[in-house]
């Protein structure tokens, strides 16, 4: 076997894979390159088609020289052969709870790094429980949640803390999405994200037993405690609901790592999503309960997976989303960091909170612009800045893996805004 390719994009014919390829091409030719790359999936013809589509999208004659590897999650030997040909696998084949472990396992066995965009806590933490020790021993980096879930919250928390100049006790994260020209009917996100959400929520209760094994020792009680505001509260002129995404779990895992390895006081986190009207917020609460109820039963999950457009009111779809719709979608994560202007080391502090720093992470096209950019840059960081990664390999969050790299700076150079919008002391 010849020299390994720097990057293989697995699941390249799916929506996330398709939108990732232009970024891989761009960075392979950039100042941080040159790099070699290939694509992998089940169908040779579909892989050829996606290369032709990518060539048209980026304005080159052809990409026929890019290696094509046939690999199928139903054929474990093919996955082993595929991972053995790469330094880093960008895994775009989800839902990861169903299809991800075979790729992670093969990557660890073959000494291949792995990044993905999973927002499924069961998969992410399950991989940490099963493979962290072996990955650590082999110097392999496995990093999930490398896209919209959960880079803005995870790296955004560290960004706000960096500018805090004191001790940050907690951060409240508020997500707001909008569409230029106002929201219009039609799909905004692909079916794969919907399927991942259905599987993750349907298996949510399994997290409790998993975490007992993964974290036999609890984090210390932090005071003052940051409580979740539910079911709804006002934030400016918008209404905030608890945001049941992976962000909370990912940020908490990062903070646990920094506490256990750097003896750093953990930052507490709560996550919310902003709605423009009270009626919209109440509708989301109703639909959320209905979704949760259906996911608890096999037939309910079948209905959700079979009729995504109906049950998501058209937001999720199996159909391709028009490019102009994607480019008109905007998002912002506003992070309200609270704490003290003094340096506090004890976990329980009775000094009143006296400082607030508010930061914001924003960009366009969250699902297939920002996500695919961030995912590609995560692979680039592993390849190009290995000395800035944790000393040992392992299964890590984006913040743990890339906090000392130029990851945030590269995001900023490519259209993502990280900014401090308020810094106040009482």
Automatic annotation (TrEMBL):
GO cellular component: lipid droplet; mitochondrion; plasma membrane
Protein name: Saccharopine dehydrogenase NADP binding domain-containing protein
GO BP: glycolipid biosynthetic process
Record key words, sorted: Membrane, Transmembrane, Transmembrane helix
Database matches in InterPro entries: NAD(P)-bd_dom_sf, Saccharopine_DH-like_oxidrdct, Sacchrp_dh_NADP-bd
Similarity comment: family membership: Belongs to the saccharopine dehydrogenase family.
Span of domain Saccharopine dehydrogenase NADP binding: 7-143
Superkingdom, natural source: Eukaryota
Keyword Membrane tagged: yes
Signal peptide interval: none
Record carries keyword Acyltransferase: no
Transmembrane segments: 272-294
Lineage of source species: Eukaryota, Metazoa, Ecdysozoa, Arthropoda, Hexapoda
Species name: Ignelater luminosus
């Amino acid at each position: 076997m010849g020299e390994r390719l720097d990057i293989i994009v697995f699941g390249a014919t799916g929506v996330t894979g398709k939108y990732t390829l232009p970024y891989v091409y761009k960075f392979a030719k950039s100042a941080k390159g040159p790099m070699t790359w290939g694509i992998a999936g089940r169908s040779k013809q579909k892989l050829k088609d996606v290369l032709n589509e990518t060539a048209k999208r980026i304005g080159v004659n052809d990409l026929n020289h890019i290696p094509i590897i046939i690999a199928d999650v139903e054929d474990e030997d093919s996955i082993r052969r595929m991972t053995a040909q790469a330094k880093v696998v960008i895994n775009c084949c989800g839902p990861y709870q169903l299809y991800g472990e075979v790729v992670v396992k093969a990557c660890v066995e073959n000494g291949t790094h792995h990044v993905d965009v999973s927002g499924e806590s069961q998969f992410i933490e399950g991989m940490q429980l099963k493979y962290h020790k072996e990955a650590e021993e082999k110097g392999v980096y496995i990093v999930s949640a490398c896209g919209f879930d959960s880079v803005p919250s995870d790296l955004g928390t560290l960004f706000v803390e960096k500018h805090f100049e004191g001790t940050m006790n907690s951060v409240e994260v508020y997500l707001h999405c909008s569409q230029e020209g106002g929201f219009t009917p039609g799909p905004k996100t692909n079916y794969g994200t919907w399927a991942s959400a259905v599987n993750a929520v349907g298996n949510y209760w399994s997290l409790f037993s998993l975490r007992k094994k993964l974290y036999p020792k609890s984090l210390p009680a932090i005071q003052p405690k940051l409580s979740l505001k539910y079911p709804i509260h006002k934030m400016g002129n918008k209404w905030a609901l608890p945001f049941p995404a992976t962000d909370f779990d990912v940020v908490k895992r990062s903070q646990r790592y920094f506490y256990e390895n750097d003896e750093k006081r953990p930052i507490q986190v709560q996550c919310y999503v902003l709605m423009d009207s009270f009626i919209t917020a109440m509708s989301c609460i109703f639909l959320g309960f209905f979704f949760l109820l259906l996911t608890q039963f096999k037939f309910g999950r079948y209905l959700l997976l079979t009729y995504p457009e109906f049950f998501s009111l058209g937001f999720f779809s199996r159909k391709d989303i028009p490019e102009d719709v994607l480019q008109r979608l905007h998002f912002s994560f506003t992070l309200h960091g609270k704490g003290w202007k003094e340096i506090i080391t004890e976990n329980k502090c009775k000094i009143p909170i006296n400082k607030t720093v508010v930061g914001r992470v924003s960009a366009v096209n969250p699902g297939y612009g920002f996500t695919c950019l961030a995912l590609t840059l995560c692979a680039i960081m592993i390849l190009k800045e290995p000395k800035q990664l944790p000393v040992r390999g392992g299964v890590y969050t984006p913040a743990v893996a890339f906090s000392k790299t130029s990851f945030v700076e590269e995001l900023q150079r490519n259209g993502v805004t990280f900014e401090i919008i308020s810094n106040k002391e009482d």
